[in-house]
Amino acid sequence: MTFWRRATPPREATPHPVPVEQPVPHELGAAPHGQEEIGKDGEPRRTPLRPLAQILWARNEGQNPDGIAQANLTKRNAAIADRSRTRAQGRLFMLGIGFFCAFSMIGLRMGHLAASDPVAPRASFSGANIDSTRADIVDRHGRLLATNLPTHSLYAQPHHMIEPEKAAAALAEIFPDLNAAKLKEQFTGARKFVWIKRTLSPEQMQAVHDIGEPGLLFGPREMRLYPNGALAAHILGGTSFGAEGVHSAEVIGIAGIEKALDARLRDPAQAGDPLRLSLDLTVQSTFEQVLHGGMVLMNAKGAAGVLMDAHTGEIVAMASLPDFDPNDRPAALTSGDASDSPLFNRAVQGLYELGSTFKPFAAAQALELGLVNAQTPIDTTSPLVWGKFKIRDFRNYGPSLSLTDVIVKSSNTGTARLARDIGGVRQRAFLDALGLLDPVPIELVEAGSARPQFAERWSEIHTFTISYGHGISSSPLHLAAAYAPLVNGGHKVTPTLVQRSRAAPIPAGAQVLRPEVSRAVTDMMAQVVERGTARFAQVEGYPVAGKTGTAEKPLSRGGGYHEDKVIASFAAGFPADDVRYVLVVALDEPVETSGEEPRRTAGWTAVPVAAEIVRRTAPLMGLLPEIDVEAPPGLIRTSN
Predict the structure, then answer these.
(1) What is the DSSP pairing of strand 137-138 with strand 275-276?
(2) CATH code of the region 284-328+343-621
(3) Where are the domains of the chain?
(4) Between 387 and 345, whose confidence is greater?
């Protein structure tokens, strides 16, 4: 079947493209040219490049519809480019704001740091709950005595080791104290973790690193360092590791002031504030050097000394020999006499019968009670008999001596009779007031166990013997603290190793003697040096007042005393005309051998050592020597 269509005359083709800018009526169902419709969901809906409505419209207008697709595509690409440009500009704007805020915060932080005081950074270990912070210890002038040193520990993880036998042999070569066979057993066993060394030197760490064993690992930690070695070793004591982990370890005090003030040193709030001791590092070094030379020269088994401010109780220097290096603290003795260990502090823990150094206490108490004066004659008839006991003097001093000469010549019988007049009850109360019957309350843990030893029943014979230093054992530190009231005007002091604040007034101790009694006793001890048993204590420019003591050492078993072993001691104050410092020197079993016969008395052994200490340390402490200058003719010397 054939269909016929009416022919229409052909239209003339237009030479111009369709004007895409002309809108298409919306009732035709199309969006404007090159644009996208917005759907109900808010998302753009793509418009066909050749919409039927535009084709029909172009034909009705006599235009060529072939350019519609190209025009719409160009329009769509332009719209897409506009949207991309807008989006990029927004992102750049937000990025710029971010950079501005970041650099602003950095600038503010830099300004804050520039305006604040500098603070040293503190090391911390992530993942560790162990507090390894510990404050430094310095002397009275701020010079370092103890500090912390960053180091590393060495441990092994055997299950990660490649050649455990080779590693064990190599470690034994680096650390001679390790046993290769034991290390091999630990490395090849079932253990997952093995401690090898708690601390390493940089050289040791490099040597272990060169082994190349992946199962050998290092952990950061801090160790305690004493830069002056053995200097003031018994005072500082030492530290060890408490709770420890792979990345940190707790440093705890185990002796000396490190243990006594452990809580203060470990307090994080005071970690940046060093503990300032009363010691003077220069004086301490000189003190130990002279004491050691004296111990060697006098062939002594040991030595101890205390140098203390007579008015404040501050310990300027204190030593016990033999000593040790707290950086390599030796092990404690498990048997035998504790005093044979270098860890034993003879100045604090050593309890000795200190002999005639106790005689000034009897003279001071008799003066305080008004029983005598300096020139009162004292019966020195020898021997003094009490039951089966006989008390004799070193020499026969005749029927009597003045109180001053009883001290100068060191008469046992005269002192014993003086003590009899005082009475045992009053004698004990006076010695107790001086602190000679209880441990010294000083910042050392060892001091708590040093309780003076004496008979529970204080009979009359004990009153006699204690008056001249037998029958009671105390430490050199006890003696120094008790001598302070004899020379400082009569007030008691409490020894301390911590420097007192100069801003706060010094607490006044109990007045145990009248000032005039203190002056009288000091004058008596000055005469001991001038014409008595301590003449070797004379130091040019620095007058010394002191008293010697020589006491036979008791036998360890069965009672009685050694005939050829003594404790020689010398207690003094200087300068004698205005005492500033108290000095005590004690030598254990000294023997002076320069003469034909060996001499053991304190006048030949302890006194020369003490004199050299005064000569060397007095200038270091700012004491000017007293120089006698003859006045020109016609002038009279006066005192201000």
Answers:
(1) parallel
(2) 3.40.710.10
(3) 137-277, 284-328+343-621
(4) 345
Q: Which residue shows structure tokens 């203060």?
A: 264
Q: Could you tell me which residues come within 8 angstroms of residue 298 by beta carbon, excluding any fewer than 6 positions away?
A: 587, 590, 591, 592, 605, 609
Q: DSSP string of 488-540?
A: TTSB----BSBPPPSSSPPPP--B-S-HHHHHHHHHHHHHHHHHSTTGGG-BT
Which alpha helices (H) appear in 301-402, and where do they start and end? 359-369
Nearest to 554 by CA among 320, 389, 352: 352
Q: Which residues of 556-584 are buried (b: 16+ CB within 10 A; e: fewer)?
A: eeeeeeeeebbbbbbbbbbbbeebbbbbb
Total-model pTM: 0.76
Residue 624: CB partners within 8 Å, gap ≥ 6? none
Q: How far apart are CA 249 and CA 312, in angstroms?
A: 38
CATH code reported for the domain at 137-277: 3.90.1310.10
**Residue 99 structure tokens:** 């950079």
The yes-or-no answer on residue 153 being catalytic is: no
Query: Are the C-beta atoms of residues 521 and 546 closer than 8 Å to each other?
Result: no
Task: Give how far Cα 438 sits from Cα of 425, 451, 461, 491, 493, Å.
Answer: 17, 5, 22, 18, 14
* Residues in Cβ contact with 244 at an 8 Å cutoff, skipping those fewer than 6 apart: 130, 153, 198, 221, 250
Distance in angstroms (rounded) separating the CA atoms of residues 618 and 574: 9
Active-site option among 356, 410, 467, 518: 356
Per-residue pLDDT of 168-226, as tens digits, reads 999 999 999 999 999 999 999 889 999 999 889 889 999 999 999 999 999 888 889 99
